[in-house]
# Entry
Amino acid sequence: MDEENGEEYLFKVVIIGDSAVGKSNLLSRYARNEFNINTKATIGVEFQTQSLEIDGREVKAQIWDTAGQERFRAVTSAYYRGAVGALVVYDISRSSTFESVQRWLQELNTHSDTTIAKMLVGNKCDLEDIRAVSVEEGKSLAEAEGLFFIETSALDSTNVKAAFEIVIKEIYNNIS
Ligand code: GDP
Ligand code: MG
# Structure
């Protein structure tokens, strides 16, 4: 679609990772500045659209949430279709969710035919007392796989905006 000063940018970004790592809360924190203790409250949300300005242009990100499908290992190919960015999320207090990251990356690769800007996200960094995955482990996996890396807390808002916007800016840089 043309705007007065050029093209309009709309990027699809997907959030993936094991159940209960905080995917829905990262999105609700970013898009609406909301946090829910109750997981079920967010089920049913398909995607949220967020606008930001890059180089004086309006860029829109359509950010998709799994709405709980991952519990049944049945995230569909429609979910991934057309995605140009991804946040691969684990919970720093649960090692099993970090061990699943490789599987999520494989699934992402299987379903995509374009270059995808990827951010490895260690969420729940507010839970330092029960940390099970070190910052170094996160960093080295991200380096090995060619991903950006950040730790976030949807609870206290740490780095949530940065996690999404670094990905969106990378997508923009890839195409312009
Ligand atoms: P999803 O299944 O990956 O979408 O995870 P949810 O967003 O539904 O979150 C699962 C649970 O973790 C909920 O009880 C949230 O309140 C909690 N949670 C999500 N993000 C954080 C966080 O950053 N810190 C803490 N302490 N809890 C979180
Ligand atoms: Mg969810």
Notes: The first strand starts at residue 2 and ends at 3. The helical segments are 23-32, 77-80, 95-99, 101-111, 135-145, 160-175. The radius of gyration is 16 Å.
